[in-house]
Amino acid sequence: MTGIDKIGTMTQSNAVIQNALHKNQSNKFANLLKAAQEKQAAPSGLANNPDYSHISSEQVIPEGRLNGDFKTGFDKTFTSAADKNAAPQGAAANGNVRPSDKKIDKTSKLYEKSMELESFFVKMMVDSMRKTVHSATKDSFAKSMYQDMLYDEYTTSLTKQAGFGLADQIYLELSR
């Protein structure tokens, strides 16, 4: 075998190796994309899977959230067995619903989304109240942004603990 034949064989084998590496990376990406599309990308599911151990974050995005979303959500707020058959609170307890229909599964996705809608209404109320307080100095963009994030957390906490009953009413209406 001459020197030119050896170089041709080496470059051909390098191309085969590069092609195999590219195909392996493409398959890994396709599997990751498929898992995300099937909504199987749960935090514990990918973190323990050796194919996805290169993902830097320990917490893969929960369903319905955006990457970089730092707001506390309502998922896993209610987890006890008593929450599967809970009585409504607040205004929902006094509504025009038959007593036999007044059971709420607080562990369900529907209730979680109902809490998010209630939180949105509470946020609108808190924002309206914030507009009535005037500051002596002009707030910077960063200060107003972080203050808005702080009030998002306040409204989430308020929704979880105040027991307004709006989420309960929404849940009862949508689950009929």
Question: Could you explain how this protein is built, in words?
Answer:
The chain is an all-alpha fold and 176 residues long. The chain has five helices and no strands. The longest helix is centred in the N-terminal third of the chain and has 35 residues. It is flat.
List keywords for this structure.
176 residues; mainly alpha; 5 helices
The gist of it:
By secondary structure, the protein is mostly helical. The protein has helices spanning 3-37, 43-47, 109-130, 141-162, 166-174.
Layout of strands and helices, then pairs:
Blueprint: H1 3-37, H2 43-47, H3 109-130, H4 141-162, H5 166-174
Helix pairs in contact: 3-4, 3-5
Gross morphology is flat
Q: Gyration radius, to the nearest Å?
A: 26 Å
Strand count, sense and barrel status of the largest sheet are: none
Q: Which spans of ≥5 residues are poorly predicted at pLDDT below 50?
A: 39-43
